[in-house]
Specification:
Blueprint: H1 2-18, H2 29-35, H3 43-54, H4 57-79, E1 89-95, H5 103-111, E2 116-120, H6 127-135, E3 138-142, E4 145-149, E5 153-159, E6 168-175, E7 178-186, H7 196-211, E8 217-222, E9 240-241, H8 242-246, E10 264-269, E11 272-279, E12 288-294
Parallel strand pairs: 1-2, 7-8
Antiparallel strand pairs: 1-12, 2-4, 3-4, 5-6, 6-7, 8-10, 9-10, 11-12
Helix pairs in contact: 1-3, 1-4, 3-4, 5-6
Length: 295
């Protein structure tokens, strides 16, 4: 019985990993599963232990099948290292946490070495905004999202990302190497059984990107969409994911105490990512995503 159970579970796990994008939404369960997809690899040693207890070589071979699928899917990510090289722009994004009295401390620790920082869940005039205004010469905020920069900000525009209210912005940075168009977005929430708002806002932002003629685009924010969630394919491609292109590992950002997924993203086009990482927890329930780019 144990032998048969190991074989069945192993085959189902391998099929689920390889074909997760083909599984229907199942009331939002699939979204949660895809958000945690890399963690399913921990089932492999459990299955191998069960096969050992069953004293079955067949079960052990079956248990290796999902391990092989996981290695193909996530091995390159787990073993990746930043390409390095010269960079012209160091950027970050962080959800500071609504009603977070420590948000000033959070952004101060993150922003020290950055040229550009995007923030979400801002309280207008709150501790995070006050702290960043002291650290950066240029800023632009819309509702609960904001952009701070060491370079001049022009062509400012508030954006409704398909939510019925403006919770995103578009602006242009005037860097020494040329203009960079920046979007700061906080997309709709995605919960089990309720991803419609998130999906609608993803679609709205994709239309903005497709219609934008800018040579260089940088999209920063809390997308409420994990790196392994099929929904992110609505934006990457056509944009590139800095963590995927130049990161060290999975780059999980939430929850900050023990990150298990990555809803916070740095997406771009017309540039080259040279490194990407995650800043430590500093008072927010999200960790910050950080990347260096060459223009």
């Amino acid at each position: 019985m144990l032998k048969r159970g190991v074989i069945v579970v192993s085959v189902l796990l391998a099929a689920g990993l390889a074909g997760h994008s083909l599984i229907p939404p199942l009331g939002g369960v699939t979204t949660v599963a895809e958000s945690l997809l890399p963690w399913f690899g921990w089932a492999v040693p459990v299955l191998l232990l069960a096969a050992l207890l069953a004293r079955s070589k067949g079960a052990a071979l079956a248990a290796l099948l999902p391990g092989l699928v996981w290695a193909v899917m996530f091995g390159p990510v787990a073993l990746a290292s930043p390409p390095g090289g010269r960079s012209d722009l160091k950027v970050g994004t962080v959800n500071v946490g609504v009603r977070n009295n420590a948000s000033g401390h959070a952004v101060r620790a993150i922003a020290q070495d950055l040229d550009v920082l995007a923030a979400q869940e801002l309280t207008p005039g709150g501790p995070a905004a006050k702290q960043l205004n002291q650290m950066f010469e240029h800023s632009y905020t819309v509702s609960t999202v904001g952009l701070w920069s060491r370079f001049p900000i022009t062509d400012r525009k508030p954006i409704d990302p398909g939510l019925g209210w403006k919770r995103a912005l578009r602006a242009v940075l005037k860097t020494p190497k040329g203009e960079v168009t920046v979007y700061v977005v906080h997309l709709g929430s995605a919960r089990p059984g309720d991803t419609a708002l998130r999906d609608r806002s993803l679609s709205a932002v994709r239309k903005l990107v497709d219609a934008d003629p800018s040579e260089r685009i940088l999209l920063l924010g809390d997308l409420n969409t994990a790196s392994t969630d099929r929904g992110l394919r609505g934006l990457a491609p056509p944009l590139l994911d800095a963590q995927r292109e130049a990161g060290d590992g999975f780059g999980f950002t939430w929850p900050s105490s023990f990150p298990v997924t990555r809803p916070d993203h740095i997406l771009y086009r017309g540039m080259t990512a040279t490194s990407a990482t995650v800043a430590p927890a500093t008072g927010s329930d999200h960790r910050a995503a950080v990347a260096a780019l060459r223009l």
